[in-house]
Design brief:
two-stranded antiparallel sheet; Dna Ligase, domain 1; flat; alpha+beta; 6 helices; Arc Repressor Mutant, subunit A; 2 domains; 3-stranded mixed β-sheet
Length: about 140
């Protein structure tokens, strides 16, 4: 949490009570909370905060690279996670929205080098796989 606050300060952003509450919620809401879940957590201490405020702050955090937004294609909405380690990828269930981290990178360094040979400097990448989790597949049978 302190690292995120340091990044905000170093980029010239004020540490407002709302921003601090969103950062706290990200660390306390469990893995991959939705904006709505973050709002519910924030409202416990800041009852006047709106969903728009949550989205504005999450967008800023994503832009600064301190939060990752995971596109879920689910009615619950996208999910968010604090960036705490190096890059990683996700598998996402199209039915229930369950997200799991992949603890390996399926993109080889040789493929990245091929792209860079054409003059493109890659600084990061993100990959998400969409499908159906074991529980949803079993329920559909």
């Amino acid at each position: 949490m302190d690292r995120l606050i340091d990044v905000l300060r170093n980029k010239g952003y004020k540490i407002t009570p709302q921003r601090r509450a969103v950062i706290t919620a990200l660390s306390e809401c469990g893995q991959f909370p939705t904006a709505q879940q973050i709002l519910e957590h924030v409202k416990q201490t800041n009852p006047d905060v709106s969903l728009d405020t949550i989205y504005r702050n999450l967008s800023l955090f994503v832009e600064l690279g301190i939060v990752h937004e995971i596109q879920t294609c689910n009615q619950d909405g996208n999910r968010f996670e604090m960036v705490t380690t190096g890059h990683h990828h996700h598998v996402i269930c199209l039915d229930c929205g369950k997200v799991q981290c992949l603890h390996f990178c399926p993109i080889s360094s040789a493929e990245i080098e091929k792209v860079e040979e054409n003059g493109f400097a890659i600084v990061s990448h993100s990959l998400e796989f969409y499908g159906y989790c074991q529980e949803c597949r079993a329920a559909g049978q």
